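[job 0417] fold request received: Glucose-6-phosphate 1-dehydrogenase
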Amino acid sequence: MNAAPQVEPFDYVIFGGTGDLAMRKLLPAFYHRFLDGDVPDGCRIVGTARAQLDRAGYQARIHDALKQFVDHASYDEKRVRKFLECVFYLSLDGSRADSDWDGLSGLLEGGEDRVRVFYFATAPRLYEPACANLHEKGFVTAGSRVVLEKPIGTDLASAEEINAGVARYFDEKHIFRIDHYLGKETVQDVLALRFANPVFEAVWSGEYIQSIQITAAETVGVEARAAYYDTSGATRDMVQNHLLQVLCLCAMEAPKSLEADDVRDAKVAVLKALHPMTDESVRSDTVRAQYQKGEIAGHAVPGYLEELGHPSHTETYVALRAEVETPRWKDVSFYIRTAKRMKAKTSEIVVTFRASSSQLFPGASRPNILVIRVQPDEGLSYRLSVKDPQDDTFTLRSAEMNVGFPQQFGVRYPDSYERLLLDAVRGNPILFIRRDEVEAAWRWIGPVLDAWARDVAPMSSYVAGSWGPDEATRMLDLHGDVWHEAMDDM
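[job 0417] inference complete; emitting structure tokens
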């Protein structure tokens, strides 16, 4: 992961170019890369969708989006207008052969030797027909890549079908399955923390680590995404992709190198080493729940079923315990948790070390805890035991070492999409998901979803603005663990 090379002029076609993802994330990310000089003159960013817009109308939408989603310090009206000169629009239905493909050909004219990236910010069911049309209309060149947004399927069978469909038209080396969590700088820091610091590398195993928690909590509800979310749920939306990827980085053996396939081989090995989930383990090691009405930041909020307007068995909260069956991780619990309408917005990795066996302070020390803050306030903290300066005896107190990365380095931490968009141009797949990773993740999580569909584990509930259901607390208590927010009581 050395300094990324400057890219040559490229063409980037976004299917779903008027959608929320494009306006909230993709185009602001391109704007930031433009400010940094990483979008050379002559690049063309082409938004496509079914909406009947002209170029000026599309540029006006992007202009409004940048005002809303770009931080004030980075927004510059003159630079925005210069950036918009790179942006084009075409009303096009990628899934239909009779759509305006001639119009796309005109927009891309003269760029046959350039890198072309086709980004699918659309429903996965459109991936194969759109790829077929790109191939049959002659748009797939030697320098073409395709970027696929998650979810890749809703189960193993559908994932295999999507992967096979896209593979008919693009080689695996030209398929970039994006997981924006891997684009987060602090997630990438897990590799540096583990393998570039001997003090952590030496203790990164079950001999010294009791448990690892991976949490992605949001205060928002499903809101405008209710229709999508009710067909997905917390597990498909977050666990199968984002959080299992983080688990892999925490648990993998050192890869042979930082070449893409070496890193991805190491991650696949973790997914294959996960202890299979049976009905019995689903009962004991998983919790699913829906939020009920409550209060967040002093404001009353409705429950999930009230927002949805009809009954549902979709989980907005999931917590599960996993085991990695390798010698390194014997007797270590990995906890994964994600939810809507939680008390605070946080994404973090919490490593709890085993209590000291020193006879000098028997039973007196609290466990060391390492917290890697993915977002917000990217950084890390480490809790250790020190002598109490207010006591003449050797009484111990906890002290915290805290580092905020943006403050430490004096930089704006980039959004995760900023690097990923251009890594696809560079043809660097290290932060993208390989086909066997997707399918291995579905093989492990599929039995959990199947068991829930048969009500093997009941649906629980939690009050909006809380830290989730009591059942999740009890699940950890059975293994002598507690969630991070309760660790001050340890």
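[job 0417] notes: The domain at 182-411+435-489 is CATH 3.30.360.10 (Dihydrodipicolinate Reductase; domain 2). The first strand starts at residue 10 and ends at 15.
[job 0417] exit 0
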